[in-house]
## 1
Amino acid sequence: MSWPTLHKDPASFRVPPNLEAYETVRERFSWDDARAALDGLPDGAGLNIAHEAVDRHAAGPNADRTAIRWLAKDGRVRDVPFGELAALTARFANVLQGLGVEAGERVFLLLGRVPSLYIAALGAIKHRAVVSPMFSAFGPEPIRQRMEIGSGSVLVTSRRLYERKVAGIRDQLPSLKHVLIVDGADGLPPGTLDLEVLLDAASPDYRIGPTDPEDPALVHFTSGTTGKPKGAVHVHEAVVAHTITARFALDLHPDDTFWCTADPGWVTGTSYGMIAPLALGVTMIVDEAEYDTERWYSILEEQRVTVWYTAPTAIRMLMRAGDEPRVDRDLSALRFIASVGEPLNAPAVIWGQEAFGLPIHDNWWQTETGAIMIANFIATEIRPGSMGRPMPGIEIAIAHRTGDDEHPGVELVEEPDVEGELALRPGWPSMFRTYLDMPERYASCFRDGWYLTRDLARRDADGYLWFLGRADDVIQSAGHLIGPTEVESVLTAHEAVVEAGAIGVPDPVAGEVVKAFVTFYPGIEATDELLRELHGFARKRLGPAVAPREIVVAERLPKTRSGKIMRRLLKARELGLPEGDLSTLEAPYDATPPGAAGTSAPDAAGEGPS
Ligand code: AMP
């Protein structure tokens, strides 16, 4: 389905865009120039993320500028200026030093979005330890798995999280030497240390040691379809990509108030919810609470957020909540909105325009890429539903895998509008450098000098990229390869549908046929008539071979903690297959109880493919 292109009026930009002439900037771009915008450690001692994000601002006129504005769940607000952040992170680095923790050792974080999380992460990076933030909602098993794969020697957590999730598995973590409790004042669990006491006793001065830009700084775990999570390793050099992409794709300027809603347990919450804004000297909002419609609108209003980076799942929740919570708000400070993590359906892009007077700018990247690779930029037109165009400095191809395991190859697709796998030319600074303990798995991501993303996409004649689905989720029906996104974007264009997840289910004739799960806007009843209409709507736009054979109306869809619909779980439940690694599942998922919502097979709706 194609939607009208959104053109922008340059007079509407409140500040001159960082990226105006896309083609020219792309032609002239060099990573060396991007690197030159950073300071590097004094005396040529290398490049350290924490120096760029904290110390260099603390030493200059930005010392009193708020680095982090923390909004506590209970309404308290704490501002941490760059100067104070420098001292606190120095204290944390000194605590590690005092404990004998060495450069390269792994420090795991299990905390909600509280200031200590940011202080520990940046302090550990100062000390050249390798940081791995975990979602605080993880249960003991995902924690154990990650700390085992990462040989974590330090864990920073809260008393409650430790007692509930770690104490019972501590004896299974032989590498874990120190547990630092951030709120130990009222009593410490046995075998742990009180971080506040250690910080108070530590010096607020710390000189960062020589840091090779290729030294590891972060590990982010990403779920595999089966088995164990993979620990993608990122190095200090990544900050070069974090900063330039935040300038180009998020249009961050020094005076912005920036809110990235992601948790640092997901790579977005680290690259853009911590490193990029701080490294650019921008004030960032950190909200401790989870999504809540009223709260989110009041944050945008009261904090005068200028640039907002969020995810499609949150945008769809705001859409679902209707206009009422928003209409009386003064959201005039907002000047740029971006989204990542999942396909941003065209209606959501356009909703942004209607609700905020600003379209939502989709961008694409992965844990492995470390930073935004494809984006819709502020000064360029938006083709709703498209991920946009490659970042300057990023070479992208649409590829088909050729050969076999022994002679793997790729064939690049030059013609427009042919689907294939999204491939990136390695060499950008934030590219992952390995998967912990899985060197073969890492090596298998590369073929003929390309990094293959396992995402399917097509490129139109003007270079805009359109997402079609994960390679693992692709549906093969009667000789067609169907990307679930094609089906879902049509279903979500229907006015009753908020979200959709499409999977392939076996069919004796077609191989597979499409089955879709949808959620409806509140108050809309899943009548047979509406389902018939939805089938007709999909069939008219997709054709009988691609339209879903069956549509199930669910109360909700299974999602990851970063908001991605877990199609693989929908499929496993449907077919009784192994469910694989579910450690990032947001909440237990039960298939919709019978009778709770509607379902329609072709017979019921009379709309199956012919
Ligand atoms: P993660 O590594 O958890 O950040 O997940 C990365 C995956 O999320 C990508 O490989 C895509 O499958 C999906 N993804 C991220 N951004 C987008 C986007 N803008 N459109 C469609 N899919 C996306």
## 2
Amino acid sequence: MTTSGFQPLDHKRLAPDVMQSRAQALLVEAQQRRSVRHFSSDPIPDGVLDYCIQIAGTAPSGAHKEPWTFVVVTDPAKKKAVREAAEEEERENYSGRMNEEWVKDLERLGTNAEKEFLETAPALIVVMRHAWQVGPDGERQQCYYTQESVGIASGFLLMALHHAGLGTLTHTPSPMGFLTKLLGRPTNEKPYLLIPVGYPSEDCEVPHLTRRSLEQLRIQD
Ligand code: IYR
């Protein structure tokens, strides 16, 4: 969307009790979200990913440049290629690129260099960050606060997918520059996150984790 001029904001105040119950209901839902590393290969119902990607596209961005693209990978051969390239990087990470403290911090997540979920999950969404954009005459156009903008859009996406009943993982095979080429994207698009999406497998387990309480989260002046 491009803007030209101004228009009145379409906003209606809600009754306080409605505000409270809507916020609380969203909290209950958000508390159920977990990172999923074991997926069913069952397909995702038609249209769900498209709605969620459009929700991600409502995120605010620096100078409204919308510096993002969401590449959806469902082709088994392509998922296999992503897995192979990601595992190659991860083997290097686990066998030396990550320091001792980092490897120890990951112990409770039970992760390793094997990334079966990259093939099992019915879809991989690769969030691409536009470091710059190309104008109509091929000129390079600046983008602003792209890390922040794409981070917010990714948060919207994760929440939307969770709300729709799907499991996700925020996976960051590192480095992940290989994805630009593998997915045939232009060089201004930098891979930001790789999000496997699908139903969690029937036997999916997640680590015991607690979250910070409101008292720890909120500092009152
Ligand atoms: N990218 C590796 C390692 C990893 C790093 C962090 I920080 C995590 O929260 C989880 C994993 C991997 O995906 O295994």
